[in-house]
Amino acid sequence: MIIKNGLVFNENCVFEKKDIYIENGIIVSSLDEVSDKTEIDANGNYVIPGLIDTHIHGATGHDFCDKDVSGLLSIAKYLKSQGITAFCPTSMTLKKDLLKEIFNTATTDLPKECANIVGIHMEGPFLSSAKKGAQDDKFIINPEINLFKELNEACNNMIKIITMAPECEGGLEFIKEMSKTVSVSLGHTTASYDIAKQAYDLGATRATHLFNAMPPFNHREPSVVGAALDNENTFVEIICDGIHIHPSMIRATFKMFGDDRVILVSDAMMATGMENGTYELGGQEVTMKDRKATLADGTIAGSATNLFDCMRKAVSFGIPLESAIKACTKNPAESINIFDKMGSISTGKVANIVIMDKDLNIKNII
Ligand SMILES: [Zn+2]
């Protein structure tokens, strides 16, 4: 297959007029290597890598934690139809045995019409009750290395990210031992700057939905935000649905961290892709009205938008298009060590490609 006449988002994260050659689902360097010479005319539109959502609980009325394979397929199908070609299904804070069953449903072997599962994001149960957000504190526990190992082994090491609170008893020991195995993301935490800095020095590499469910970036108490900023190897997630974070803070985050370190995530729950109504997240009732999802007490409970809409929102807030695309493709891929396979339009990588017009409407998904 050949994609012609496109304005291609290239490896250097700038747009360039060029053709793309694909053989057996992989991008190749020349026309000679292509056996099926079917042409797709991009008509001068943008050609970008498929988006990668590393923090998503559900969509289309289904949640990863339903431990229902057909529900997970429905989520994966919806994501692909929206230009999100890979994702990390994200679990809520639940009991060990239930988590084990949930993780068993995550398979890399999905039909072609589905987005790829590229790992599990385990959000909890090693969190701080004081910053639980929409997590159920009945199941919050202190970090346990053996429990994590047991869960990860039971799902063939599919866990790529763990969101945890480093200040909990055993938190720093956990990070020291496990950060070589899994990307440790600080979140749902009351950690001070000093504790967060220790966590990053010990190998944590990420912050979960920066600003949400953590102490604010205060001038004398800079918290996780300041510690993440001071550690150059750290990626930060932001939920760019226009509800969780003020547009000014989105602009500030890109300026502070630079567009190499920001990862846009949806943190979507099952109401994504659905009408206003009552839904569920981690066993708690959630009301979704006009894309805002809340618990009965008003706590924001995940988002009801998808990552492509988050990218459009970021651009509408004044983030340069190239930076917004990077934050949905290259950066998430690098953050979970899959950038050698996907996350850019480069020779040898999986041809997960989206064609979109100048108004960021999707024209084709390959
Ligand atoms: Zn979440």
Explain what this protein looks like in three dimensions.
This protein is of the alpha/beta class. It folds into two domains: 52 residues, no CATH class; 289 residues, Alpha-Beta Barrel (TIM Barrel). The protein has ten helices and 22 strands. The strands form four sheets. Strands 6, 9, 10, 11, 12, 13, 14, 15 and 16 form a nine-stranded parallel beta sheet that branches. Strands 1, 2, 3, 4, 5, 21 and 22 form a seven-stranded mixed beta sheet that branches. It is globular. The mean pLDDT is 96. Bound molecules: zinc ion (ZN). The site of zinc ion has 6 residues, from loops.
Quickly describe the structure.
The chain has 366 residues and is of the alpha/beta class.
